[in-house]
């Protein structure tokens, strides 16, 4: 007969072994789930691979590549005029090179950014009489490299890295998809209600997912799934209506929330460095959210006017969404932890400078550190490596470096005077100045597929221009902020923003359909900028 104590001990051992096996199985399943997420995201990127600019379609990349270097040399050989220093001339030459590279995509953004680092280090390093205070003559490549890499030390780059990691956490857990499905479940089955749901999803996700592409990637497949379940082709009018609305809503709320898009952080970084003004998350929201709310309402009516769907309701729409939610299963512990951290992060962002002294970059980095801690966090570093496009950080940092060089050398001020001085902008009323420069920004954006690159090129010039505007509040802060809003206008063409290209890659709509919605949205957005400049923004002291 086996003693009872031995039997109990054996049962405990079996229980411990079973518990360990279950934990190993859970860890294996989690690792498999994370790998599946990474594989799906990689497949999505491949399926939506598409030249990002119109000029990239023309197969003229070698010509554009050499044209960029020709422009660089041409600017360097121009005689110095109007007080432009040799260092400023170098900065303008590299800017000309960068703009051609960015607009034509002769090489990828990451490669062109690496080339920019080398060009600044070599050309500035060997240029005599640069006019840079406290520097040797010539500066030398080591010191010049410091200017080329200055952007990498910016807190804005740290915030972008943390924001990309937060978006990756949403993707790794599938929480962004669950949030989208919850909103659609509440939307009902009428086409007009589903359209509202598609817009609201983008608004909700903008607060928690600091990546426009990730937000579009969460919403678009769900909407297309609903269209397919109803028996319509994905390129039906219903598919075009919902997918275009989702992409345009993402662009609208890129403006409404500071952390929703990288280009906002470029502008904030330049403002902090050059104007000595820190723009908090809450301040940005107070300034920009009213515009985005009004544009969201306009988007609904523009979409209803421009694209008439085949049906007025999606029969069984609730069941389709319910089935997708059932496939996700109950909320996991990781999702719950991510919700808690994301909500706390949002509260910390919105009370920055009011209830606590912590800046957005520090807050977000601490949150990401928590998300990576075993047992507390929601994903591993390996998953983070696979989900984040780290080349984005290089492009972002180099853009800041180039913009800082333009400001430091006085090239931005010289260029501002050369472009806008002859038009007598500094003598115009502020509203007229905003109207003229905003129209210029919208036109320039047609050549750029990246709003981040556009902000890197234009914001330093606009900061210099703002300093010359008489009577501008806070040294022209409002003028610069408003131009940053306009830089984020990505409404006109599929190539105007990455989220547009992701949506366009699904084949749900044509470029003509997108343009049909983009023209009225751009006009309405422009008029709203002027209206708010004359009213709300003036009343709160921004303009």
Care to give the gist of this entry?
The chain is an all-alpha fold. The chain is built from 24 helices and no strands.
Describe the structure.
This is Anion permease. With about 550 residues, this protein is mainly α. It contains 24 helices and no strands. The protein has helices spanning about 5-45, 60-75, 85-105, 110-125, 140-150, 155-175, 175-185, 190-210, 210-230, 235-255, 260-275, 280-305, 315-330, 335-350, 360-370, 380-385, 390-410, 410-420, 430-445, 450-465, 475-485, 500-505, 510-535, 535-540. Helix 11 (about 260-275) runs parallel beside helix 20 (about 450-465). It starts with a helix and ends with a helix.
Mean pLDDT: 85
Shape: globular
Helix content: over 70%
Strand proportion = under 5%
Number of strands: 0
N- and C-termini, Cα separation: 91 Å
Tell me the major beta sheet: none
Low-confidence stretches: 44-58
Order of helices and strands: HHHHHHHHHHHHHHHHHHHHHHHH
Q: Helix tally? A: 24
Structural class call reads: mainly alpha
As a whole number of angstroms, the C-alpha radius of gyration is 26 Å
Ordered list of secondary-structure elements with their pairings:
Layout: H1 4-47, H2 61-77, H3 86-104, H4 109-126, H5 141-148, H6 155-173, H7 175-187, H8 191-208, H9 212-229, H10 237-256, H11 262-275, H12 281-306, H13 317-328, H14 333-350, H15 360-372, H16 381-387, H17 391-408, H18 411-420, H19 430-445, H20 451-467, H21 477-487, H22 498-504, H23 511-534, H24 536-539
Biased composition (Basic and acidic residues): 19-44
Organism: Brevibacterium senegalense
Biased composition (Low complexity): 1-12
